[in-house]
Amino acid sequence: MKKTTRLHQMLSGDQLDFLMEAHNGLSAKIVEDAGFQGIWGSGLTVSASLGVRDNNEISWTQVLEAVEFMNDAVSIPVLLDGDTGHGNFNNMRRFVKKLEQRGIAGVCIEDKVFPKTNSFLREEKQPLADIDEFCGRIKAGKDVQRDDDFVITARIEAFIAGWGLGEAMKRAEAYRRAGADAILIHSKHSDPAEVFSFLKEWANRLPVLLVPTKYYTTPTAGFRERKVSIVIWANHLLRGAIRKMQEVAARIYVDENLLNVEDQISSLGEVFRLQGDDELQEAEKRYLATANNAHSAIILAASRGLALGKLTEHVPKAMIKLGNETILERMVNALWVNDIHDIIVVAGYLREMIDVPKVKVVENQEYESTGEMVSLAKAIDLVSSNVVIAYGDICFKPYILDLLIREQDDIVLTVDSGWEGRTHLARESDYVYASHRDSGSYLLEDRVVLKRMVSTAPDQTLAFDGEWIGMMKLSKRGLDHVKTCIDRFVSVPAFQQMSLADLLNALVEQDIPVTIQYIRGHWADVDTLGDLNLASRI
To answer: Model confidence over 412-426: pLDDT tens digits?
Structure first.
């Protein structure tokens, strides 16, 4: 259904409907998300959001630009507060043409002289337009509109100007005869008496809209009883936003940090949701030439990290701060630098603390009693090709990831051939036996493949060829191999405790090549307090 038709039906229907104010695309999206069926494109709040007064200080073209963003952001109709029509009948004609071109459902014009003054801004009487001249604006707008359902509402300011019920009735009837689709009757009194007196005399000759900004204590039932078509909440989103922004700004200024505000404000993830980032990602898959080759990522970050003691008492290991970023944020940023935007994090311990923009979180509720394979199984069916799989506690130079995703083989591991330099860490890790040692030459003709991986503490007497850093890349074929392997083991009791090393060894046993890409240093995993200093220098 067209937006114009939907608005027209709201006016002509038997039930009371509500419009909520919006002043930009983001606030319009919030209005729609809240469940409202229509939007009031407020002249006051659009002006205020731009830091100017509600006295026609922004041009009608700037109003058009603002309302176009609102309309594009939502599927519900927008009724624009068009002030006085921005001039005489000729300005009104062009204004309506441009509104229709942008898909705006309707416009409300008020019977004041240009430039207008906000109805609540002055105590003295405000000058009103000549009735016949204002009727000319209405007629001009109706004559040029191309969509029969486009709504022109005449806003009567007689009560605002102190001219009483008789003047309000005279103007309403004249505007009805001129072709107005609806009447908005306005008042600045704290009770609805004069508005209700108008409704009684008017007797529903045209649909009526109310703006109970001043008489906000009036029960909504009173509007329904009097057959009001639409009630407009005209400025409340902006006023609410101003209060919250003032509080946040003052708090940050005093504290000189974000500790007391971060949990009081929307996450960046919510901002991105309102911006429609999910739709963009889907569109990229359809339209970008490189979309089919794009990578996704799975980050395994379910563990607490008990060896880190009190540091993980209130946050999971992946959310420990390294400078201004958490370990997980560092990894996500590295993925983004390499154009990997589809990122899944498998969380477990304090799952609610995983708050990183632009990621999808899945949960391994059995993280305390299960191994890495179970966590991977929770996410593996959510990706379809070209995926990077990584532990959530590693830090690395971005070039390492760049080298990895450039590899063409189906399953590729990043392995540090300088493992012996890390033996002072004296803990269990994933060490590899490979078909070839790292020669340091880029001219090695034969690819290096995994022979076996062992999870053990380092021992100088063992001839390991390197240490796996906890990151791998899978092509579509490699991903299929991994999914098949997981499906084969998932019903086996031992599956609950299996590691990624077990997975890789199983692939090798099936004669599925697992390629090794050697690096030398420039990475760290964070398992102990001693690792934090090393990781912060990466």
So the answer is: 999 999 877 665 556
